[in-house]
Amino acid sequence: MRRAPAPGGGRGAALVLAALTACRPPAPAGFTLLFLGRSPAASLGGRSWAPDPDKSRLIAFDRELRVVRQLTSPRLATPLAVAPLGTSELLVTERTGEGVVLDTAGQVVREWDSPDIASLYAAGGGRIAAARSPYYVPQLGTSEPDTAPLIRMLDTLGRPTDGLATIRRPALPFLTYLVNAGAIAVGRGGAVYYAPLVRDEIGKYAPGGELVWTATRGLFSSESDPVFLPAKGAELRMRSALVNVALALGPDGRLYALGADDSAATRLRVDVLDTATGAIVATRHLGPHETAVAVNAAGALSVFDAESLLAGAGAAAGAREPFAPPFVLPDLEGHTVTLARLAGKVTLVNFWASWCDPCREEFPHMAALYREFDRADFEIAAVSDDVDRGKMLAFVRRYRPPFPILVGGGRMKQVYHYRGLPYSVLLDRRGRVIERIFGFGGADEFRELRQTIANEVRAP
To answer: Helix, strand or coil for residue 387?
Structure first.
């Protein structure tokens, strides 16, 4: 379960600066964030926008790396990369490969399905490029023809229009996806930069598709494609080295490559490349707590603890948003239940279906949660998205939930645009979003949720 808090509340931004200055000497302001964790950030409108996949949100930082805004949406379940799209929009890569375009107010402009099993997107110079995502790699991918493009060029609706280069075909064709997954960036002039996940290589492709240069770090005396190792029981094992994690173009026009110093990518490094020649002009080896990378106004590389930067997210500007659209749905007896009827109570709106395995695990935890709070303070509205009423009723008979069940009739995903089930939204007494909850994270996550509800119930 990933919990996406709504804006508002929490500690002040001054704590962020205190955390930064406590662990490193003062540095000039004017930062552009390149990477937060293992994800590339986007620079747009004088702010750096970075994904926070653990909290299902985007975070905006000012030039001093203070949190100034956070965006959440049902469509942002696990955002893993952000790229600027034009002068006013953000292109977000979801873990499962969907592309989501938002404006800087957080409104979803459009979204599209992945052209690959899961794609990673980048944009620049009026172009959109997609590579096979290094964040979601199947152990055994479908074999592709050796004429398949390495990089897909897309229009603004996410439709493939062209391709650059061709894939590398490994000796074991089922590893084609892994061999061709990688990081990607697009320059202002339309050049595309690509770095494979499991090979010591970074390439620049001209807008016409010609390979301009290839750079290597010299990590290995010789390289081979991934190979399978003897299995341990049902576990598939593989020998491969993770090399390239993410790419970003800095405001100084240089290419920054976040990569691995070891084969498991537990120790990271940043290499700075001249985009004209591919020459590596600087390298920074990162410590275990150096998990955010930025460039300051003087063009110098600076590193930070990402957790310290995110400590100010609770104080980001913005108020809680109303839950929308307000539902009007029948319960199992056919009585109409509206969101307005729940006003004055902290409410957990839960979307589920009988075919959803995690929903089965989640229901007993929700039942226990429901019994802990007074009905005057807390309510659960569990909305079934089953199309088959018989299967829905069989599920209810088996789990006998003490909370109300509402009938969504298979239309809820089209209305609320969530990625998958279970999906929940915790609302305050005024029907505003406290946080969004994606998936089921077990007893530990429910303990956190219980505390959040208790705090909200006690709030004036």
So the answer is: coil
